[in-house]
Design a protein that fits this description.
The complex is a heterodimer of chains A (about 375) and B (about 290). Chain A is built from 16 helices and seven strands. A seven-stranded mixed sheet of chain A has the order 3-4-5-2-1-7-6. In chain A, a hairpin with a 2-residue loop joins β6 and β7. In chain A, α2 packs parallel to α4, α9 packs across α11 and α10 packs across α12. The C terminus of chain A is likely disordered. Chain B is α+β, with helices and mostly antiparallel strands and about 290 residues long. Chain B contains nine helices and 18 strands. In chain B, the strands form three sheets. In chain B, strands 7, 8, 9, 10, 11, 12, 16, 17 and 18 form a nine-stranded mixed sheet that branches. In chain B, strands 3-1-2-4-5-6 form a six-stranded mixed sheet, with helices on one face. Chain B has a three-stranded antiparallel sheet with strand order 13-15-14, sandwiched between helices. The longest helix of chain B is centred in the N-terminal third of the chain and has 16 residues. The radius of gyration of chain B is 19 Å and the shape is globular. The chains are: A alpha/beta (about 375), B alpha+beta (about 290). At the A-B interface, α2, α4 and α16 of A face β6 and α7 of B.
């Protein structure tokens, strides 16, 4: 039975946590961990834990929130270390990488990084520097993950990044980008428009707040993979809250206009305001809002699941259909129709195979524990 | 159906549609470990072992471990399902239970004085652990991971079925012919695997912490006489730290805890062929000073 638990309200309503039953909390911990948000919630709620009256519940929450925060702290530390290593390696080749998303938040130590956990490290270099960066990183242990021929072709011809690089000793993963949007989408911007006002912080280069936030919006809404959708929307909430002064709103609006990402900026502001009560600039939102009531109803329908919790205990109704539509939309925006048809046929065949034969059928047979 | 299992110090919600798993859980854990899913019992972690797909119930049956709706491992043959669930739980605890410093080792106690066996596979660690935990006044804390409270020498029991591999299966059945054993998981990546239900005394005292008195690196050698080498703290530390599961996640807390244990415990390397010799040595020479 899906719980009536409202995960957004844990972040927006300071009274709400105290109204939850013990079993609600159990679901909340489960869901937040699954959504990679337990660390962020822990950072905010751990100082308030004494207000929970039930001593058993308080102890339960203290254990899980502290552990989530320890893990996040450790990952932050590790991101810092890996970026130093990457900088050292690439700087000798005269390349200065620009760090994106989570790595950037962590290097800046901004509010978004508090309690945040990481999948991989995203960095951007100029397109003509990709090959030499890949080679240099391989020399210090970052090896490209093996991908199947289809995915390899996808990456090399159509994508904005190369297949993930995995460090042989430490297991950390780096994604090397040369653009922030796949080339095949025809929406890849002249990347210099994003990087022109790059910021240098403690020896690391990152995008300036407006470009960083717009990239975060593009990453969420011009995409088909919403596994971390809720966390990504929460990131945007943090970014808008921390950086949203009048200069910021003017810059992000102009950048979205010149690079044609108005829809993505609109969706980010609209859904942040809707779910996280984010104090977005109403004037900017009004300027962006050129869409019909029907269009917005459609977006609300398909994105409710995409930017919500995916755990079965928190599903919104029609969860599967909504995610499927969001998946198709994300692909549609990134690929021309013929390419999309080909892509969905291949991926569709793979997922049918997975459904019927189990995930391991498509994996390298050597990886299988069975003989 | 989700079932909450009290595997002190954790409560684990387990979901499975594989009859073999349910059957082994019932045989391997004591009755009072199965809790009602009520407000009084909050699950710390939620895991499952379910058929990989509808068809994989019937055709080359295969099941997959899942944690938080994710499948960190590939599917396993049906008869490996219970072992897969137990290993999966090890992974979850080692990765997430950061309230403890966790050492990859067997740990048993004579009353409330604990001995740690951090050792690589093949050293006879499981056989030794399986033997000792069933002896009078001895008990199991864990055959796989020692949970240590940070900044202390206190180990918290994590009593679960003991994982026996290959030869140690027959040897243990020889020690305890009336013991309770799980169904066999044949030809896993670790060889043939069977789980063995710990002694009643281990279950009865599963909430009682024990103090770590010695770290013993065992090495089984056929027909060998008992040979004992006492190690100094430096030698012991490096070997000990190599076996720490979550050392890197805990950073300084992990380091300080290991140092505290090393400074307060005796450290031995022993070669043995007869487990009774090991027991006598531990009881008479190592622990006699502590036994009240």
């Amino acid at each position: 039975m899906p719980s009536p638990l409202n995960i957004y309200r844990l972040f927006t309503d300071s009274e709400y946590p105290y109204t939850l039953s013990a079993k609600d909390w159990e679901s909340a911990v489960l869901i937040l961990r699954h959504e990679s948000l337990l660390g962020r919630f822990a950072h905010r709620f751990l100082p308030l834990l004494d207000n929970i009256n039930d001593p058993d519940l308080q102890a339960y929450l203290r254990t899980h929130l502290s552990n989530a925060l320890t893990l996040a702290g450790r990952q932050n530390h590790s991101v810092q270390f890996e970026c130093e290593e990457i900088n050292k390696t690439l700087n000798t080749k005269g390349i200065t990488p620009l760090y994106l998303k989570g790595a950037a938040y962590s290097l800046l130590k901004n509010n978004t990084h508090l309690g945040r956990t990481y999948g991989d490290i995203d960095l951007l270099v100029e397109k003509q520097q990709v090959e030499s960066s890949e080679r240099s990183l391989a020399m210090v242990g970052w090896i490209g993950k093996e991908v199947n021929d289809y995915d390899e072709k996808y990456y090399r011809e159509w994508a904005h990044e190369i297949p993930p690089l995995c460090h042989g000793g430490r297991g950390t993963v780096a994604d090397l980008h040369h653009n922030i949007v796949p080339l095949i989408s025809k929406r890849a911007p002249d990347i210099s428009q994003f990087t022109v006002n790059r910021v240098k912080h403690n020896g690391f280069e990152v995008l300036n707040p407006a470009a960083m936030t717009l990239h975060s919006a593009i990453h969420l809404f011009l995409n088909e993979d919403f596994t971390k959708g809720l966390r990504d929307l929460s990131d945007l909430d943090c970014l808008f809250r921390e950086y949203g002064d009048s200069k910021f709103w003017a810059e992000i609006y102009t950048l979205a206009q010149t690079t044609h990402f108005e829809v993505e900026l609109f969706l980010a502001m609209y859904f942040c305001q809707r779910h996280f009560d984010t104090p977005v600039d109403q004037g900017t939102l009004n300027k962006l809002d050129t869409y019909s009531i029907g269009k917005k109803a459609y977006w609300r329908f398909i994105f409710a699941a995409a930017v919500g919790a995916k755990h079965p205990k928190a599903n919104v109704s029609g969860h599967g259909l909504r995610l499927f539509l969001a998946y198709i939309r994300g692909h549609y925006l990134k690929m021309p129709p013929i390419t999309l048809l080909k892509h969905l046929t291949v991926k569709g065949w793979m997922s049918v195979t997975e459904l019927v034969l189990g995930k391991s059928y498509l994996h390298n047979k050597d990886e299988l524990a069975e003989k | 159906m989700e079932q909450i299992l009290n595997i002190a110090p954790f409560k684990i919600a387990i979901e499975t549609d594989v009859p073999l798993v349910a059957q082994n859980l019932a045989a391997m854990y004591p009755e009072d470990a199965f809790l009602a899913n009520t407000d009084a019992h909050l699950a710390d972690y939620s895991i499952g072992q379910n058929y990989s797909s509808f068809f994989r119930r019937f055709v080359k049956p295969q099941s997959t471990f899942d944690f938080d709706q994710q499948q960190p491992f590939l599917g396993q043959k049906e008869n490996h399902s219970f072992a897969s669930l137990e290993w999966g739980l090890n992974y979850v605890i080692a990765s997430y239970a950061l309230e403890y410093v966790i050492i990859h080792s067997g740990i048993v106690a004579y009353n409330d004085d604990a001995i740690i066996f951090p050792a690589p596979p093949g050293s006879g660690k499981s056989t030794l652990t399986a033997f000792l935990q069933g002896q009078p006044d001895w008990r199991l804390l864990s055959d796989e991971m020692a949970l240590i409270k940070p900044h202390s020498q206190s180990a918290v029991p994590f009593v679960r079925p003991i994982c026996l591999k290959n030869k140690s299966i027959e040897v243990t059945k020889g020690f305890y012919p009336n013991g309770t054993f799980s169904t066999i998981a044949a030809n896993t990546h670790k060889g043939d695997v069977i789980h063995f239900k710990p002694s009643q005394n281990s279950w009865d005292k599963r909430n009682d912490e024990a103090t770590i008195r010695a770290i013993v690196f065992p090495q089984y050698k056929p027909n060998a006489e008992l040979e004992i080498v006492q190690l100094n703290q430096t030698q012991g530390f490096m070997q000990f730290a190599e076996n720490a599961f979550n050392f890197n996640l805990l950073g300084k807390v992990g380091f300080d805890t290991l140092v505290k244990i090393i400074e307060n415990a005796q450290i031995f390397e022993i070669t043995y062929s007869d487990v009774n010799d090991v027991k006598d040595f531990l009881q008479q020479d190592v622990l006699n000073a502590f036994t009240s």
